[in-house]
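Message: Just now I want nothing more than another pair of eyes on a protein record. I am handing you a single protein, as its sequence and its fold in token form. As I understand it, each token names a local backbone shape. Take your time, and here it is.
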Amino acid sequence: MEGREAKHIALQKLSANTTYQHRWAEIFRHEFIMLVWLPEEHHEPCSYTPSKNVYIPQRVFNDSSYCYCGLHKADPVDKSCCLCSDPLMTLIHESVKQGKIVAGLA
């Protein structure tokens, strides 16, 4: 029963975005595309890739001209980009390490 209810809710949402005259044509078109055409074309939804769950981009390890935040460094020999080497960011890092708000941030 829950599957039918979910389908009815999906049809209701789909029909809300169509005009009254073309409602069923749009619904049948959508059903055809989802149930027939996409499987015939071997379409698969986005599969899992390990890079989606990491915070540091892979290009940081492959190219020294990128900072750990993912931004491009002004000079590849620099330790970090202009954003990460900003004095305010340094104060934020200090605050996180100490577990309290440092004097420069207050």
